[in-house]
Design goal:
This protein is α/β, with parallel strands linked by helices. It folds into two domains: 3-50 and 298-405, Aspartate Aminotransferase, domain 1 (Alpha-Beta Complex), CATH 3.90.1150.10; 54-293, Aspartate Aminotransferase, domain 2, CATH 3.40.640. It contains 15 helices and twelve strands. The strands form three sheets. Strands 2-8-7-6-5-3-4 form a seven-stranded mixed beta sheet, sandwiched between helices. A three-stranded antiparallel beta sheet has the order 9-12-11. It has a two-stranded parallel ribbon with strand order 1-10.
Length: 408
């Protein structure tokens, strides 16, 4: 055994508590198999398959031509923060000034930095499950304790007021809610937000973080999804609204997110980011201004495409014995119940005991990459991304059906 193996760990305990992103791990495994020459249909990545709209790309090029390639104000350019404030007022009915907003290197950075800036060791973060894979590990990395609450399909994969009330303790610091949700597409209505707000009213020490990144990608009603603060404006002084341009405008690689909220938290985020990352990319900020202020036709067109894909893939999945999926209300994923496959045997005689086993069986036997439901805190499911071409989805469905037919 080497000296390095016998020495005290050199990685901090808070980092040793967390694990790599399961969705990234699944994508990496699919990529490795491709390099080996395997034919792989990847239905893993939550990334629009559309190009960033041309007007947004032109705005970035023009910014570079004008020399906008230097540091910006730490909280973001005045132009972008004003565009975000205008968007929040126009689309969401929320009143924030530019000084109430901080621009971050993606929505993920906003969430992590907010937790880092506010959590003391042992503080609790309530996370409804199924949840985006990073919420719990980000909480752990920041010294907090994730408190996950199982929200089954019978209640629409949504948190109930009774569950919330039972989970709150004196150590609760945050309730973290994603609507529409990754991985289920569950979307809270105004009435559901009001019911949760009634519980929160009696617990003033609890902050609320809303991850609104999929707000426009929904399949019922017009405009963005209802926001907690539409239902309960009185919670504004303890709500942090997090969002970004990545999903709505097919700008995942541009890395622009933001947080809008109480001034003390926004100021703390600015201080933390000043030491951690500095300002977001100047060119990306210019592109984001155009995304928010410019022509919005791309949004409706892309959502219409996602709806067509959703409907076709839900029908394909539900036609496969042992699998079941309700149409999601938003986002671009299917959360497929694979309970009907648990306990069955592969052609090689291996028993499928978990949804991890199911996902691995699909990958190894027919080359379809998925993410098991265990990664999202609720089994037995797997997540399937519809942010890919119809041809890719059809091929994936054909292969999954073939793999299921081979089980005993």
């Amino acid at each position: 055994m080497s000296a390095a193996e016998t020495a005290e760990p050199r990685v901090a305990e808070r980092v040793r508590r967390i694990k790599p992103s399961p969705s990234s791990a699944a994508a990496d495994r699919a990529a490795a198999l491709r390099r080996e020459g395997r034919s792989i249909v990847s239905l893993v990545v939550g990334e629009p398959d559309f190009d960033t709209p041309a007007a947004i790309r032109r705005a970035a090029a023009e910014a570079m031509d004008k020399g906008a390639t230097r540091y910006t104000m730490l909280a973001g350019t005045p132009e972008l923060r004003q565009a975000i404030a205008a968007k929040l007022k126009r689309e969401n009915g929320l009143d924030y000034g530019p000084d109430d907003i901080v621009v971050t290197n993606g929505c993920k950075s906003a969430i992590y930095s907010a937790l880092e800036a506010t959590l003391e060791p042992g503080d609790e973060v309530i996370v409804p499950a199924p949840y985006w894979v990073s919420y719990t590990d980000m909480t752990l990395a920041c010294g907090g304790t994730p408190v996950t609450i199982a929200c089954p399909a019978a209640q629409g994969f949504k948190l109930t007021p009774g569950q919330l009330a039972a989970a709150i303790t004196p150590r609760t610091r945050w309730l973290l809610v994603n609507s529409p949700s990754n991985p289920t597409g569950a979307t809270y209505s105004l009435a559901e937000w009001r019911a949760l707000a009634e519980v929160l009213r009696d617990h003033r020490h609890v902050l609320v973080m809303t991850d609104d990144i999929y707000e426009h990608i929904r399949f019922g009603g017009n405009g963005p999804a209802p926001h907690l603060l539409n239902a309960a404006p009185a919670l504004k002084d303890r709500t942090l609204a997090v969002n970004g341009v990545s999903k709505t405008y097919a700008m995942t690689g541009w890395r622009i997110g933001w947080a809008a909220g109480p001034r003390d938290i926004i100021d703390a985020l600015g201080t933390l980011l000043s030491q951690a990352s500095g300002n977001a990319c100047s060119v990306s900020q210019a592109a984001a201004v155009e995304a928010l202020n410019g022509d919005q036709s791309f949004v409706g067109e892309s959502v219409a495409t996602y709806r067509t894909r959703r409907d076709r893939m839900v029908a394909r999945i539900n036609a496969i014995p042992g699998l079941a999926c309700a149409p999601p209300e938003g986002a671009f994923y299917l959360y497929v119940n694979c309970g009907g496959l648990i306990g069955r045997l592969t052609p090689e005689g291996r028993r499928l005991a978990t949804d991890d086993d199911v996902a691995m069986y699909f990958l190894e036997s027919v080359g379809v990459a998925l993410v098991p439901g265990a990664a999202y805190g609720l089994s037995p499911y797997f997540r399937l991304s519809i942010a890919t071409s119809a041809a890719n989805l059809d091929e994936g469905a054909d292969r999954i059906a073939r793999a299921v037919a081979g089980l005993r």
